[in-house]
Amino acid sequence: MKEIFLGITASMFFAVTFVLNRSMEVSGGSWMWSSSLRFIFMVPFLLFIVLIRHNIKQVLLEIRTHPFQWLGWSFVGFVLFYAPLTYAAAYGPGWLVAGTWQVTILGGILVAPLFYTTVQTENGLTTHRHKIQKKAFLMSTIILIGVMLIQFQKVSDLTFSEALAGILPVLVASFAYPLGNRKMMVLCGGRLDTFQRVLGMTIASLPFWLILCLFALFKVGAPSQGQLIQSFIVAVCSGVIATTLFFIATDRVRLHQGKLAAVEATQSTQVLFVVGGESLLLASPLPGNVAMAGIGIIIIGIIMHSFSVRGGRSSKKSDLSNVQEKKVF
Known about the structure:
Largest sheet: 3 strands, antiparallel
Number of strands: 3
Radius of gyration: 20 Å
Distance between the termini: 32 Å
Helix content: over 70%
Structural class: mainly alpha
């Protein structure tokens, strides 16, 4: 339950991303600056936290030991996650992007077969590939139905091109984020804490963001003061606070596939925060009856996930001392 609470809290801060990214696009800002500035602004905050905890040496050692894996999976988990989201914000409203993003709760479940676990038994080491959690998949599908109902009242106002540009990039991000996150958890093997891992992934993704900055500078010019301020807010709220909380929650349950799916499903609550944020800041209309029904279904889905996690805790608890995750590249 603590992990689910952390996931919901992270979703509240994640919602800032969708609202402010849309706000920056409406005011004429470029998606290239919105995406790259967030991660550039994250570096000093994360670096300060890790330095005062005297943990920077281990981060650099891990990156030096597996440089290509760090570059590759940080690109997947951060660049292929956030660049498509900000691009989609240029062509679709925040609620459409946030709603489509909820496919990630299924994405996290569907990438499970890419991982396997080695367990020490009486007969020696036994390796098995992770399976798709059918129960978690069903409950996550229920949540997605609620998300679709929230969008139902507004989707008719979009043109086909707006819907396409606002949906396809987000689908890429929906699978890239859980895949990159899980791969990095396996690569680190518990040797790094959450702050170290987020800092390491941010540093490893910096070359890609700096290239995007140069491209943006030549294509659209320097960012405005308003975009700098809003990107800074996104970096703190979403990049530092939300990402750290979410990674803490997923790291705690990384060896429990059902619990991991439940934590990832809490991201669906972002839609609720985005709808409220856009109504307050961007004067978007409040949800109608159909959308309210969708909100109710989302809440029911989260509660079902929560009780599922509590019910399976005693019977499915893993002995972390005997379990060793392996990576599949």
